[in-house]
Amino acid sequence: MTAIETDEGPKRTAMRLAAGSIAIGFFVMGLKFVAWFLTGSVALYSDALESIVNVVAASAALWAISVSHKPADLDHQHGHHKAEYFSAVLEGVLIVIAALLILMEVWRKWEAPSTLEEPWIGLAINGGAAAINGVWATVLIRRGTKARSPALVADGHHIMTDVVTSIGVIAGLIAAVLTGLKFLDPLLAALVALNILYQGWKVITGSLSGLMDVAVDVHENMRIRDIISHHSAGALEVHDLKTRIAGRATFIEFHMVVDAAMTVGQAHVICDRIEDALRAEIPSVRVIIHVEPEDEAKLPPGTTAIPFA
């Protein structure tokens, strides 16, 4: 038996957030390139270059979210939930490419360091861009986590990384201006690039776990067991619980043992009760219950504990 629900509301919310990321990404990118143009700083160039990745990644997220919310069809009978993981993997790859481009520019600047032009105006503009990114990243992470959207969460964490690196760049460039040490500019850019590489690796590995059908964590597994136990009155036992996460969807499968004399209709009532309870507690859940007669039980006869084996 399976539980199916519509998700037009979450889809509209996720699409609006993804579209908002594109618009904000273009605006912030423009600010950062202005800051780089005014100063000539390779560190600010690295910050601006990462903003290009933000825009491309947000566009990929918008596409992935629209695909992931498509209903199941003959070719994808379990839905399209994993599409968002592909977006997250793409974002990780783009982050790595951006880091390599930054390192190339760092090498050029390291061989021929230059004095920063109009540093204070450029730093102020970059600071404003970082503040905008900070607010938006917080929104994406919170709303994306609530909506169980890997694409939005990955986008939010990437933008938050951008904020952290921007703060480091600004602090370092202030020190460079005050001390006159020209090598600080390319050094900061190199540190930004290394941090971006690390963040890109985290995004890629996290997304690959989702593509490999990772199970829910221990806390969520126990919560699922409690829900099933509290709503399985009439069943003799539940065993072989299996879970997997695919984007915002959680797939739950288990075997439920009932009295061999129980009718199909009576067993169906128990299944419906469990499914309704799971749907009420877990967003976008898909449930498969295998009903079995009592000779398939794994617990000793007469067991009165929680009906899990």
From TrEMBL:
Coiled coil (residue ranges): none
Ranges for domain Cation efflux protein cytoplasmic: 221-294
Subcellular location: Cell membrane
Segment forming the signal sequence: none
Residue span(s) of domain Cation efflux protein transmembrane: 21-212
Xref: InterPro entries: Cation_efflux, Cation_efflux_CTD, Cation_efflux_CTD_sf, Cation_efflux_TM, Cation_efflux_TMD_sf, CDF_Transporter
Keyword set includes Membrane: yes
Membrane topology designation: Multi-pass membrane protein
GO terms for biological process, alphabetical: intracellular zinc ion homeostasis
MF terms in GO: cadmium ion transmembrane transporter activity; ferrous iron transmembrane transporter activity; zinc efflux antiporter activity
The organism's place on the tree of life at top rank: Bacteria
Gene Ontology cellular-component annotations: plasma membrane
Alphabetical UniProt keywords: Cell membrane, Membrane, Transmembrane, Transmembrane helix, Transport
Family named by the database record: Belongs to the cation diffusion facilitator (CDF) transporter (TC 2.A.4) family.
Protein name: Protein p34
The species this protein was found in: Tianweitania populi
